[in-house]
Amino acid sequence: MQQGTLMRKVKSKSWKKQRYFKLQEDCMTIWYQSKRTGKTESAFSISDVETVREGHQSEVLQSVAEEFPPERCFTIVFYGRRGNLDLIAGSAEEAQCWVQGLRQLIEPRSFPLIFALASCTWIRDWFQKADKNKDGRMNFKEVQRLLKMMNVDMNEDHALRLFQDADKSESGTLEGEEFVLFYKALTQRKEVLSLFREFSEDGKKLTLLELADFLREEQLEDEGTEELAMQLIDKYEPSETARARHVLSADGFLMYLCSLEGSIFNPQHRALWQDMSQPLCHYFISSSHNTYLIEDQIRGHSSIEGYIRALKRGCRCLEVDCWDGPNGEPMVYHGHTFTSKIPFREVVSTLGNQTARQNPLTPSPSECWRELVVLASSGAGSQGTRPMEALGSSRCFSVPNPQELKHKILLKGKKIGRLEDTLDGPGEEAPDVSDDDNGAEAEEERRRAKVRGTQQGSALQKEKETLAQALSDCVIYCKNVPFQGFQEARSHSRPSEISSFSEAKARKLIRDEGNEFVRHNAWQLTRIYPSGMRTDSSNYSPQEMWNVGCQIVALNFQTAGMEMDLCDGLFSQNGCCGYVLKPPFMRDEETLFNPNDPSTREGPGPITLTIQVISGQQLPKVANSKEGAIIDPLVRVEIYGVPADQAHQETKYIENNGFNPHWDETLQFQLHVPELALIRFVVEDYDKTSRNDFVGQFTLAFANIKPGYRHIHLLSKDGTSMPPSSLFVHIRITE
Q: Where in the cell is it found (predicted)?
């Protein structure tokens, strides 16, 4: 990679340009040179890369699949809204060199290395930006400029003192290790050092027993604290001598607090930790709306990228809206709108490839309709992931659990006749086609069903009837049925059926029949979808739907904001498998729970959540801010849950300090139903004349919080990480 490789950069089927890509000596920057012009430019930084995909795993590379084999193709995916970089190497060996090399660089083996790399990248990036004359040195004037760029408003005398202390060569400039010394002095964490000294007898180190005391008393680690202390020393102590003596230095202590073990998110809950053998209706399921759209609902772009991104994000219920296309080939797009179209064949191929590569707990239940079964059976099924066949007795028709659904695709859709007819042959029940969420489309389907029942048409019509019946036969467990009321559903519906509600209809039911809605969702699946008025792909709050146990709460994944923060926050646990087990009182068909009356919850009384917001570290500047502008950060803590628990409080703002602001403020909340609560930490830049600007956020379920002194690693507006930006807090939970 450092020797350089000539590859094709591809933007479309007709745009393929040769570029000479080379990894720089810092192992963090990729440059490219145009073969035609010879011009050299920076292509991207390793820190900007989210993942690397092999083969034809992008819309662009699929368009040239017949021309270039998959083993020579790969896609570099960047954080945020930056477009993908599609490349074609000269050979499979060269492609593997770059794919494996990039993965090595972006996926360090342990969190300490991630932390160290983030700091090193931060240092180098800022040094290069402030080194105006590019001589590899920095005078005091350049340092002052750098501090402004880094969100630091520092007294000039103090800045000069730090500069002179770091200038070991007394040259009047900083270079190399001297700048690192300056940076370390700048980032010294007094609040962490003070905490360290509270538990250290000599103020220089923590012995094994002293660290165990800290873990037990402050972090509330109640089992094997000495063994855990030994593991943390071995993992985070940078000094070999200290490790040999089983002691932790102040640097090692900071490394631990900034690690995954020191995070607010319980590391044990990042892995698969819940029972996955319960009925599907007992889980919240990560679900997307019109997955193929990556922009608005009227004129937006349809792309397989929408499916890839949703699956990578842990989504487990996808939508595939299919319509007749040219030459009888079905196309995927938003019907009756001006959105672009993609072939259904490409969607099925992508779903098969992604689910086979991810090997998830379960692949995505896809919502498919119309004459697609021939393509479906020759597409996804050939990729190691197949449509569902009935499991167990054909008579019971209970929905399988997530464990049984591994490596299968569950089709939710319309059904002609009864579910039992699929295996037993038609009964006496008259054929019917169930409702869907789109009124116009449902009416069209009913019209077609009527035509099929009364008209003996041409051979083409007969072929369509056969295909429609074949697709209907694929719907084994999730038949769409119109909702006629909770009593009607309890009397006549089956667990294998599902109803869809608009957000407005769901809100009315929550308001008027909250307990009945919870009971209904304890035995049958429910899907919620956004209002048709949300043409800009905005989202509704999923929390109110989760409060009554709705499983499939479909959101527009392409739209960043609080609603998707809540979605990511809930499903970031349990191995990011896309399934979260509902609390026990929401899995009982006779439950008395009503989210509008928290006293109906069975279990202990309310709990108190106390959050001390201590400090912030290296907060980013607001996008498109003026040069030299420094943020005035504040922290707001928001609680989402049942109506009685909805609350928010915020700290005061700190003027002109985004680098190391200190708040030392305590916020307190009472939670009546903590099992349903989500906690969102938001950092904003205070503005007294207009709306505050967003800086960063982190959201997690209350059940995943670790008490004690913890770091919160902030995410950007679209949910990507922003190392080394963080908050330092203390968490206490009391009954």
A: Cytoplasm; Endoplasmic reticulum; Membrane; Nucleus
